[in-house]
Amino acid sequence: MKRTSVAILALAAAVSVVHAQAPKAPFTREDAEAGKKLVATSLELRAQIKDTAAPADPFKILGNLYFVGSANGESYLLTSPQGHILMGAGFEAAVDRTQKNIEALGFKMSDIKAILLNHSHVDQSGAAAELKRRTGAPVMAGFAEVPYLQRGIHAQSPFAPPDPSGRGGPRYPAVTVDRALHDGEVVQVGPLKVTAYLAPGHSPSSTSWLYTVRDGGRDYRVLEFCCWEYPDDLSRQGFITEATTRRTIDLWRTLLPIDVYLEVGAYAWSGTLTQPSGTITERMARLKTDNKLFINRDVFRQLSAAREVEFEAKLPTLR
Ligand SMILES: [Zn+2]
User: Fold this and answer.
1) What distance in angstroms lies between residue 199's CA and the mean position of ligand 1's atoms?
2) pLDDT, tens only, 160-204
3) Could you tell me the distance, in angstroms and rounded to a whole number, from the CA of residue 154 to the centre of ligand 1?
4) How far is the CA of 224 from the centre of ligand 1 (A)?
5) pLDDT of 229-274, one tens digit each?
6) Which of 161, 168, 178, 252 sits most deeply, having the most CB atoms within 10 A of its CB?
């Protein structure tokens, strides 16, 4: 083979490698670069939270949406005159504070008509059983989380090495799930409508919640997202498969635009990441006085683009 042909082939191979790791439209390379920086900021802020279950003050995010969780985020309340939806139950140890936060905002526990759990881990579902008892509300979760929730088991990779403690990982009080959610199903309480989107990876059916919040005469699409999970070696996480992850990334494209991006942790909210500087404490304080910081259509798109590139790059470790 001539040297020029070899060079062309090598160039073609290099281009195809680069191409394989570029995000697909509507994401761009610029989105992926910006998203990578957001991920780095988010990790930095996350490392500042030393006690994730520590108390935090409640506040209004936007319209009828309130933060009622702990230092790490976790719990949100979407309200209406016909009843409220609580998303994320938080840690078992934080349950009294969550109730106090809800009541401090002027809402009643008995007006909560649905408790939505995004996945079966201690930080999200630890207080689910107790909150169900205190509110009388039905508990709902992605269908594949149900066997774990009903046994109080922290869902982890079925291929992980056995837990040396013999306890099978962290435990929390088991909770009976009243409704198993499948992808695209809608939870309705009075005028409130929350759509569930299932994205296996972090757990068997991690669930994100999409809904509209009206503030200042405008409607905003809010996504409470769960959860990024791309370890360096993808084979370490037994709930990640190529087929499900590709389907999840395609789903993110269809959800655009997202005006307000919320993650289970405050370290990755759009309102936190759109601030140019500050510690997590300073950023949280600023959010309480300026909720417009939450509104940003770039954050979810850029994070998605970066994660698509990251997934493609790590894919060989899954095979
Ligand atoms: Zn988790």
Assistant:
1) 13
2) 766 677 666 789 999 999 999 999 999 999 999 999 999 999 999
3) 8
4) 14
5) 888 888 888 899 999 999 999 999 999 999 999 998 999 999 999 9
6) 252
- Residue 208 is assigned to a structural domain of this protein: yes
CATH code assigned at 138: 3.60.15.10
Give me the percent of the chain exceeding a pLDDT of 90.
78
Regarding pTM above 0.85, the answer is yes
Domain membership of residue 31 (yes or no) is: yes
Distance, CA 133 to ligand 1 centroid (Å)? 23
Please indicate, yes or no, if residue 127 is contained in any of the structural domains.
yes
Taking CB atoms within 8 Å and a gap of at least 24, the contacts of 74-79 are 74/123, 74/124, 74/264, 74/265, 75/101, 76/224, 76/262, 77/102, 77/105, 77/107, 77/112, 78/192, 78/194, 78/211, 78/213, 79/107
Domain count for the chain, please give it. 1
Residues with CB under 5 A from ligand 1 (ion): 121
Q: Whole domain around residue 130: which residue ranges?
A: 26-318
* Cα 208 to middle of ligand 1, angstroms: 13
Is residue 193 within 8 Å of residue 116, measured between CB atoms?
Answer: no
The CA 223 to ligand 1 mean position distance, Å, reads: 17
- pLDDT at position 245 is 94
The alpha carbon of 119 and the centre of ligand 1 are apart by a number of angstroms equal to 7
> What integer best gives the mean pLDDT of the chain?
91
Does residue 69 belong to any structural domain of this protein?
yes
